[in-house]
User: Which sequence fits this backbone?
């Protein structure tokens, strides 16, 4: 505890004058040290909690030619098309002109399809995600979660082509609008 002499009197000497007590000017800093350590602990703890979390992006190499950058092996390609009402359509490799490799699935079965394709393609798996106009944001986030769950390192979100959109609409049972 801090104690200080606050008497305002001067230094008189003589008979009948009592000598004032000298009080200690010692200040106890123990509570300040405790407070300092608590603050340091608080700031260290809050800065570790507030670390930003972000999605890692694998960007293409600038040194490679543009023509070679986007080429993938057809055996390692899986294209997922998101439709309405939680429907997912997919095909492996390139879409056949007659649509024979165009298949329908749902969110329960798509994980097994991705895992099977990942085992077949080994390290060359690239998943192309193509949502159409009627797919929901929830379905898009769900398919991105599937990429994370199945540890698919290479995937791309691309606009759906008119041919693919037509297959999706036909499979969903809609009337296909005429081509323009």
Assistant:
């Amino acid at each position: 505890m801090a104690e200080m002499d606050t008497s305002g009197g001067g230094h008189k000497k003589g008979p009948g004058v009592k000598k004032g007590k000298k009080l200690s000017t010692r200040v106890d800093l123990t509570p300040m040290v405790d407070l300092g350590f608590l603050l340091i602990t608080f700031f260290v703890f809050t800065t570790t909690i507030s670390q930003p979390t972000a999605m890692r992006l694998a960007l293409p190499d600038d040194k490679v030619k543009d023509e070679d950058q986007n080429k993938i092996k057809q055996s390692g390609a899986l294209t997922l098309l998101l439709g309405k009402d939680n429907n997912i359509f997919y095909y492996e490799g390139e879409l056949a002109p007659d649509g024979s490799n165009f298949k329908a699935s749902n969110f329960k079965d798509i994980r097994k399809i991705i895992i099977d394709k990942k085992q077949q393609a080994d390290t060359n798996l690239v998943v192309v995600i193509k949502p159409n106009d009627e797919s929901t944001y929830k379905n898009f986030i769900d398919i991105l979660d599937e990429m994370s769950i199945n540890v698919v390192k290479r995937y791309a979100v691309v606009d759906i082509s008119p041919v693919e959109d037509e297959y999706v609409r036909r499979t969903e049972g809609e009337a296909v609008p005429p081509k323009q």
Q: What stands out?
A: Strands lie at 77-82, 88-92, 103-105, 126-131, 155-157.
